[in-house]
Amino acid sequence: MTSMKHELSTNAYPGRGIVVGVTPDGKKAxxxxxxxxxxxxxxxxxxxxxxxxxxxxxxDPSKLEDPSLIIYAPVRVLGDDTIVTNGDQTDTIxxxxxxxxxFEQSLRCREFEPDGPNYTPRISAVMHLSGGKFSYEMSxxxxxxxxxxxxxxxxxxxxxxxxxxxxxxxxxxxxGNPLPSYEGEPTPVEILDNMDEFTKLLWENLSEDNxxxxxxxxxxxxxGKTETKxxxxxx
Length: 235
Known about the structure:
- It is built from five helices and 13 strands.
- By secondary structure, the protein is mainly beta.
- The chain has one domain (about 5-230): Inosine monophosphate cyclohydrolase-like (Glutamine Phosphoribosylpyrophosphate, subunit 1, domain 1).
């Protein structure tokens, strides 16, 4: 395992990122989602609560340009499942699973984002809590090294996840033009028992210039009770 401090502090632009895991005491399921931005349009956002989930919203509506890839619901809750993604595929997963499709099946109709030359990967996760048990899945849909004629689909399932460990997946390997897509399996990372400490660690180690918003949620595996924190750079 590596630390989230190392993963974030050594990468000026991981883009958007999802963390899912379990606290060291084994009692809480954890997820975090952050967004970053290089353009004025991307930076002009905040997270707001919507039902049991969250939505991105323009901080200054007068500056909003193209909303298509930046305004969406990153987090939605379907029964005992919590869906976290970096785009409107949250709704695709929610609708598919509502009809009995699996997480992987629901994403078969989607590809990477149509924002050439970057072709930003769609990263997604779903947390399953039921009967005092927790498991999760993660997915990345990406172009073939920048070739949009080929979509590569990877799904990772984590059953009986180890206490104190999580996995981190993000959109870009590092800053660049075009931005290079994430490579490899989700990175094993350390999770903290203390939600405030974990939130602070994530926020303080994201690039000050590029970070926009952060969402963190701890869910009691036995009871389903949730604790949520949101930090927005725009205030």
